[in-house]
């Protein structure tokens, strides 16, 4: 009887452990870290392109000093923000990271708008190449963020679903923050397009 009870307890324990989701948490946690690493990689690529872009524009638009300084300062702020795995588990640090990257995106948009006023700059091949690389990098950032959002979604579903949520509580797996849009209300309004002067 004791052997039968021991065998039944062992079978129950094996079944319970296989359904606890611990290994799934390991896999999904690593997937979110890898996806996050790609996001950071693309942000770094953008930060590396900016000095070349700014120097190219400086030659043509020397009096656009404020815009050039804003881009340089935003890049400095973005590259000085320390990216650690703990950022993924800290909503405040994650929001700060998004804010810094948003400021850099905004400064780059202003720089591109300035370039529209300089036809000879737009004709410069090095500027066009840099602009093309920057546009490609922005697309890569978007794809990397989409992949991160999907990885976080899978992880968070596991962390909140029963019975794996018990494993999450026991081993301290918290729900991870996802990307959000800082100005959601502003972007939900369609822009007005007017071709008449």
Automatic annotation (TrEMBL):
Domain of life: Bacteria
Annotated signal peptide: 1-21
A Pfam family of this chain: LemA
Topology versus the membrane: Single-pass membrane protein
PROSITE patterns, alphabetized: PROKAR_LIPOPROTEIN
SUPFAM superfamilies: LemA-like (SSF140478)
Protein localization: Membrane
UniProt KW keywords: Membrane, Signal, Transmembrane, Transmembrane helix
PANTHER family reported in the protein's UniProt record: MEMBRANE PROTEIN (PTHR34478:SF2), PROTEIN LEMA (PTHR34478)
Protein's name according to its UniProt entry: LemA family protein
